[in-house]
Amino acid sequence: QQQVKQSPQSLIVQKGGISIINCAYENTAFDYFPWYQQFPGKGPALLIAIRPDVSEKKEGRFTISFNKSAKQFSLHIMDSQPGDSATYFCAAARPGNQFYFGTGTSLTVIP
Amino acid sequence: DTGVSQDPRHKITKRGQNVTFRCDPISEHNRLYWYRQTLGQGPEFLTYFQNEAQLEKSRLLSDRFSAERPKGSFSTLEIQRTEQGDSAMYLCASSPTGNSYNEQFFGPGTRLTVL
A40 FRET partner, CA 20 to 30 A, in A46, A103, B31, B35? Predict the structure, then answer.
């Protein structure tokens, strides 16, 4: 059973546009929600993360929106750049435990 | 480079052979995780160490898989009698104890191809 559901599977955005990736979870014990960025042939790298006590976190062009009641969270990439083209994974975790990853979103930013 | 390192980066083997991968976590990170990632999927948890103790194992970790972290530093993941279904990227991650935010730092992975 997929603990974290992610959509869309792929996304094409024009340079300067906004990229939005959505995730949903079921387990209310999750208390840490990171987003990872992965380039081909590389391991995932932490992009931004949020705890459920806040509804939004912004770091530069990247923003996480978190809706605890709906058990959903999303990643917004503002002013998308070709260098943002990568696969993005959301994840959810309980303290000190394994991460449950979504299936990934392949983002392509067209110049 | 003070990040997580993995060796080898690529491994090609024939079905039925044994393979061993190594992971060196970030210094002083007490927690070490192994994940498996197949093409087009997110990483799937395999097992987790707190220092040298293996605390959790996934059902994905069949009895052909064994992981060790003998001195609480580096870790090895061994796959015996490899099968074509074992072909995947094997990722290692580490995190410090006391980090309530669970941030895990991933290595570059070992890509295994079983022929």
Answer: B31
